[in-house]
Specification:
Chains A, B: Belongs to the acyl-CoA oxidase family. Chains A, B: Its cofactor is FAD. Chains A, B: GO terms for molecular function: acyl-CoA oxidase activity; FAD binding; fatty acid binding. Chains A, B: It is found in: Peroxisome. Chains A, B: Pfam families: ACOX, ACOX_C_alpha1, Acyl-CoA_ox_N. The structure is a homodimer. Chain A has about 700 residues and is an alpha+beta fold. Chain A folds into 3 domains: about 100 residues, Butyryl-Coa Dehydrogenase, subunit A, domain 1 (Orthogonal Bundle), CATH 1.10.540; about 140 residues, Beta Barrel (Butyryl-CoA Dehydrogenase, subunit A, domain 2); about 325 residues, Butyryl-CoA Dehydrogenase, subunit A, domain 3 (Up-down Bundle). Helices cover about 55% and strands about 10% of the residues of chain A. Chain A contains 25 helices and 11 strands. In chain A, the strands form 3 sheets. In chain A, strands 1, 2, 3, 5, 6 and 9 form a 6-stranded mixed sheet that branches. In chain A, strands 4-8-7 form a 3-stranded antiparallel sheet, with no helix packed on it. In chain A, a hairpin with a 5-residue loop joins strand 10 and strand 11. In chain A, helix 14 packs across helix 16. The two termini of chain A are about 45 Å apart. At the A-B interface, helix 4, helix 11, helix 12, helix 13 and helix 14 of A face helix 4, helix 11, helix 12, helix 13 and helix 14 of B.
């Protein structure tokens, strides 16, 4: 990001800000969860982004080679992680590191004699420990995940999995002794770790993984092996050339029996020389659409031996003689899986979409094009109804995502506490909502980001617009941590199950509508509550249709799996509709329960909420005509309502995106900068290209001139 | 593309091919327009792709720096263009070059004394000339545009505009003398040219361009100038460091009067040193989402003088004393503009989508994942209904595009002939169809390519899948050569105009349905003809709604432009619906008029056509419930029909994509290769990364080790 000052703010943008009718700070606080949260976030951003070492090369990274990109990512990562430790000391007086260090010494654990013994560890200690980790982890998340990290390294970071997956997995699956040893080393960055699960031939279906870990009681070791090419680990971030340890998921064999997937800590590279350990075949998987800073890698094992105590044994143990003992509950691992999806909704989908709408809206206020009135000045493109139709629903969607993400985070915390107390009731509901929210939010964000990019015409195609990297990050999240179609079907499975219970038992809050929705048939009026009801009717209608389709197929004698597969298209649609209905209700709820909202902000939020709803009704009007109390003759009035909303929102659009609070470095866009100096920044960005450093490139003399002259 | 042989074809893929029920060659010929066309295309591909110099680095290009990428693009372009000349000599015995060379000498035109005189040039000669150019140009198009070029340079080529825009523009706008001189030089590649129209601050709205060209009768020169930063030319391909001449569009001023936009040939760089000419400020615009091989550039003028005869004067002249004379007709320029859109429908949208569906389908036949039946082998993902729903409509769409592209090309040729005879009747219809087909086809292709990519899970995100470059190329076409929303609105303007004529006069073929569609209300049956009628009813209904909205607003006293803007969202939807209806009718027409189709192929094509139609009905079912004779109770039977079509198409899917005839080098994908050796190719592709050439990257010693050790 160019930090040069371009003088006064663009006049059009300045005018837009002056005509804003509400207090943008109030909206910022509401979105972020309070004034304190905004302050904290700003403090964090200032701490990291004011460091010239972390914010030095800016856009020029896209011109370097793949190897140079990697080296720069490592250089910056080292600086960043040192700085994270500084931040921790500054905020927590080093308590986190201290705690693990003292535990390490108390337990007399050292590199050569690690002992697995659960004797001295109570469940209570584990739970406390876990909560403590989650709190610290949250700070890491706000640094590494979401937007701050993307300001420092646009194309991903090779150390992230170390914190985001290795440490949480250790907490979830290691004994306290294992935690003490490994987390202490990881936390201090003595080692850099990754998490290796997915294989070249196996993704979603964990039971299909092929890597084996066979216990050898003679030496008290596990032997890790990759029996086929398709069993190579593939994708883990930082695995290529960065990590020296990995948590590897493998099929456990002991005494000739396969016990399924278990976690093993495996050393990949020598700590001094970084050379791959014997039997370790390792490298990076190559160039990708985006995230080229993450050093995703592959990993094959040729009979690699590790000590027995490097199997994580909180949930299951292999004794010295090879006896396999399963521990009673492994719900915590389930909780960890959900966690990443919860984090993606806010940290990726909502945050990156917020960037995109900010860039596109500011650009549309500055850009003038074509002719609305003959002879008049070219209008701001933000005044075209088609442009408003591209941007305003995306803005409303972004805000709806923030509110849903907050709900999801809150219920995640509640359920985690309940799990610690052994209560499992809310887990299926949380799981169902995390699945569909991750899927809908990443998919909507990806579509909307591309719409925003195209709405900026050719300039959106420039790397310096920051749309390409933004899209690359978000579309990756449509696939990782649960491919979206698979997640929709998981939510749908829950919905169909609930559907069958509507007559017999009480339903959880998010699905209670299944009972009543289809029976309500009132005349349509244009109101938020009528819209909310209609969304529920559509979701319920689609669930009903899918469930009946499955029933009909089953009655015809189809196997349950085939019956399920035959309804899969409608099932996906049901889960999506369920999620949209949830998002609308959550949005409405925020407006209605925040009683101290100023009337000005309440008005703007209501407009955005209405637009979110009306936009989706018209987008999916077929479903609404089929399953809700909307009739054909209502459609025109909905179109008029949408039209009126676009007009009402227009004067506040720049104010609304300003409220999303995306800072300059995080935005990282020539088109979206606060000052609106679009053309100056585009021009300066073009001159960062190394090709522009010389008037004539060497290739002219080497190739072109001989070619041109050969034709004379 | 890895040319290594991996032995036998993957077993699953082999089985798929064996169960295909129709002759894939028959479909290939139908799509390409006959056996002869397929033969020609293959001959062309063999000629170019068998050259090891043109097909040498393969995927490794993505690991190099920006400058290296450019230099490689220049190196290859020089080889390629030499080879194109060889091809021309081989096919045409050099006639094209000869013709222009003899004209040059006949007219005694040389570098120092170019004379503009139209005296000896008849209209007839110009027309003949033009047709001749178009024929030759077509061959260039099949080499440079579409898929062959992308096999040689995945990320675009810096010389393309020279052929694709400079030469055609000279044909359309230069006098015969100007053509003789400039085309001869361009054709022989003595000079490399580009076409500079778009400016940093001005795109679609040509009248808004700011670059000025002011005639100075004292020296008989034009003075080109860029009065502002926003007036810099921005985007032309090859402008950055490659071209030494450009055709520049500028506001012509003579005797103090502005006459609007006119074309001027301007020398940019010295022919010997390639240094920018005095007053020329030039460079590339920087990194982009894709097409980083095209060297798009910027260009500013500081009072740059050019001789009077470098204004192209076929359509308007400036005499020595500065007198401005407009020639009667400039329809040909209009024709040239349409031409590029016509080319994009087949060469970009249909061809690139064909690549994507081929890759995704073959991968889905090879990839096995999850569990349909407990205990059974993981199924091919092609057997999941959700996967079929992602891929099969995309396949049908790709085939529909090829047929519509053929229609568009035929009518383009007809209209061009008519224009030469001074007949203009069909031009508005051609223009309207070219606009909406370019918009719908590029937009549908972009969406479908991304759907195909995601359907391949994480592996689709790899550069070696070739999805990222494919998407980058196609999504660019959504914006260039007429931004899609602007194009939809141009078609809509034509539709509204025709709508008002329904009662009074005969309508052209493509809009005749406007008269009858809304009055037909028959009971629904599931048949192609009912579907086709329904599509027309929807298009007509949407046009009617838009037209009424404009009328109502106008009657309320709104200015015509505001009334238009207020209906813009519906107008876009009308144009889209019109286009989809057209595409369906064209598809049906191909099936019905090709009487010698084998019954097997006819069956498969009918299934694909039905799927195309049913998919879009269900996707936009709201519009069909609103405006067609489909009723709510028909929707379930349409869903069942769609379901049945997915099942019917399933056994032939691999055969169908094989018929699209995309060769290995053109496909360029580890996931989509003919042999289905997906995992072997992915693994080998990863090892093309230069990071994998050494076990330990230097950054470990330089950055990581000091960091890891500092924490001990």
């Amino acid at each position: 990001m160019n930090k040069k000052s371009y003088g006064k703010v663009n006049e059009d943008l300045d005018k837009e800000r002056k005509k804003c009718t509400f207090n943008t700070t109030e909206l910022t606080h509401l979105i972020e969860g309070g004034e304190e949260k905004t302050k904290e976030r700003r403090e964090l951003e200032d701490f990291f982004l004011s460091d010239p070492e972390l914010n030095d090369i800016g856009a020029a990274g896209e011109y370097t080679s793949h190897v140079e990109k990697y080296q720069e990512a490592i250089r910056k990562s080292c600086i960043l992680f040192k700085k994270i430790q500084d931040w921790q000391s500054y905020k927590n007086c080093g308590s986190s590191v201290d705690m693990y260090q003292s535990q390490s010494s108390n337990n007399l654990v050292n590199n050569n004699s690690k002992q697995v013994s659960n004797d001295s560890v109570t469940e209570n200690e584990l739970a406390k420990n876990k909560q403590y980790m989650v709190n610290i982890y949250l700070e890491y998340r706000s640094i590494l995940g979401g937007t701050l990290g993307s300001a420092i390294m646009k194309d991903g970071m090779p150390f992230v999995v170390h914190y985001v997956m290795f440490i949480p997995a250790l907490v979830g699956q290691g004994t306290l002794q294992q935690q003490a040893y490994w987390i202490s080393r990881a936390w201090n960055c003595e080692i850099i770790c990754t998490y290796a699960q997915t294989e070249l031939g196996h993704g979603t279906f964990i039971r299909g993984l092929e890597t084996t870990s066979t216990y050898d009681p003679a030496t008290e070791e596990f032997v890790l092996h990759s029996p086929t090419l398709t069993s190579y680990k593939w994708w883990p971030g930082g695995l290529g050339h960065t990590a020296n340890y990995a948590l590897v998921m493998a099929q456990l064999y002991t005494n000739g029996v396969c016990h399924g997937i278990h976690p093993f800590v495996v050393q990949l590279r020598d700590e001094e020389t970084h050379m791959p350990m014997p039997g370790i075949k390792i490298g990076e998987i190559g160039a990708k659409l985006g995230m080229n800073g993450t050093n995703n890698g592959y990993l094959g094992f040729d009979h690699v031996r590790i000590p027995r105590d490097q199997m994580l044994m909180k949930n299951a143990q292999v004794l010295k003689d090879g006896t396999y003992q399963k521990s009673p509950g492994d719900k915590l691992a389930y909780g960890t899986m959900i966690f990443v999806r919860v984090a993606v909704v806010r940290g990726v989908a909502a945050s990156y979409l917020a960037k995109a709408v900010t860039i596109a809206t500011r650009y549309s206020a500055v850009r003038r094009q074509s002719e609305l009135k003959p002879g008049a000045r070219e209008p701001q493109i933000l005044d075209y109804r088609t442009q408003q139709y591209k941007l305003f629903p995306a803005i409303a969607t972004s805000i709806a995502m923030f509110f849903s993400a907050k709900w999801l985070w809150d219920i995640y915390n509640t359920v985690t506490h309940e799990l610690d107390e052994g209560r499992l009731e809310q887990l299926p509901e949380l799981h169902a909502m995390a699945c569909c929210l991750k899927a809908v939010c990443t998919a909507d964000a990806a579509v909307a980001i591309e719409e925003c990019r195209r709405s900026c015409g050719g300039h959106g195609y420039m790397t310096c617009s920051n749309f390409p990297a933004t899209y690359g990050m978000v579309t990756a999240a449509e696939t990782y941590e649960g491919e979206n179609t698979v997640l929709y079907l998981q939510t749908a499975r829950y919905l169909v199950k609930c559907w069958h219970l509507t007559k017999s038992s009480e339903l959880p809050a998010t699905v209670q509508y299944l009972r009543k929705a289809t029976s309500r048939r009132k005349p349509w009026i244009n109101s938020l509550h009528c819209l909310a009801e209609a969304f529920e009717q559509v979701a319920a209608g689609l669930v009903e249709v899918s469930a009946s389709k499955i029933d009909v197929c089953s009655k015809k004698g189809m196997a349950p799996e085939d019956a399920w597969n035959s309804a899969a298209i409608q099932l996906v649609e049901s889960a999506e509709a369920h999620c949209r209905s949830f998002k609308l209700n959550t949005f409405i709820n925020v407006i209605e329960t925040n009683r101290d909202l100023s009337p000005e902000l309440r008005k703007v939020l209501t407009q955005l909420c209405e637009l979110y709803a009306v936009f989706w009704v018209l987008k999916k009007v077929g479903n609404f005509l089929m399953y809700s109390n909307i009739r054909k003759e209502d459609v025109k009035s909905l179109q008029d309502w949408q039209y009126a909303l676009l007009i009402s929102i227009r004067p506040n659009t720049v104010g609304i995106v300003d409220s999303l609070g995306v800072g300059e470095e995080i935005l990282g866009s020539a088109l979206g900068a606060w000052d609106g100096k679009v053309y100056e920044r585009l021009f300066d960005a073009s001159n960062e290209s190394p090709l522009n450093k010389k008037p004539v490139d060497d290739s002219f003399h080497k190739y072109m001139k001989p070619f041109l002259k050969s034709n004379l």
